[in-house]
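ARCHIVE RECORD
Type: protein–small molecule complex
Small molecule: fe (ii) ion
Source of inputs: curated submission
Record status: active
Notes field left blank by submitter.
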Amino acid sequence: MQIKSALNSEQLDSVERDLREIGFHIIENVISAQEADEAREMILELVDEDIANGRDHTYGNGKIRRVWAIVGKSPIFRKLIQHPTVVAVWKRMLGEDVIASTFTANIVGPGAPAGGWHVDYPYWSMQEPYPTGFLTGQTVWMLDDFTTDNGATACIAGSHSTLRRPKLGEAEELEMHVATAPKGSILFTNGAIWHQCIPNSTDRSRVGLLGMYNRSVIYPQEDMPRQLSDDTLSEESDILKQLLGRNIPFRDPDQGYNWFRTETGFRQS
Ligand SMILES: O=C(O)CCC(=O)C(=O)O
Ligand SMILES: [Fe+2]
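STRUCTURE (tokenized, with ligand):
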């Protein structure tokens, strides 16, 4: 996969301003249409595997499907989770020691209803009012063209500033912004923004990847450290190890040194 250079500081300033003020920002054509197609094909293969193994996870009347823990399931996703554009944005917003919280696929099938307005983890697990400041960000990789009728992600601009989740029916009364862009683009959001995938009235699935990134002090949503084996990771970049939480030290109370996570999920020095 061809990796384009990361963003310059003016571009990062503009992303940061949008993420703080409006709550979202789109960068178009981060990867090529062909690269998006390859990743989409791989996700559809993983869906078939999940179904064959009795592990498929659906919601939205069975028409929206989630594939979990994709980083260990193909080198394509190992590249995308650490794409320089994504890392540059989240280092700016979440600190140099940013970690990944979850990386999954969300497939909005033909005839799917809206996903339901919500805030993302860790906000949905937190008491209101939420703290101010930037805790977590969502990265929606568009593997299809996102359009107003195929289940694109919609956001309520500025809603992250309420520091709370939407009440039942509240977001429906507000103007939404539908994130439309060609495949290969990314929608970045503030994790506290009110958002959902809208209905898909077309006859083709809309495939998106959802990469969430946290400040390193926030527990990730998925068990990221064990999604790649120690062997595989030994050949990989430092930033991938960092994103998977392999560099986070835990002080051992008896031994006087730190433990780190390994592929088994246990800690050893
Ligand atoms: O796939 C999408 O458009 C958004 C889904 C979403 O917000 C979520 O699963 O948290
Ligand atoms: Fe979400």
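CURATOR ANNOTATION: The chain has one domain: 9-215.
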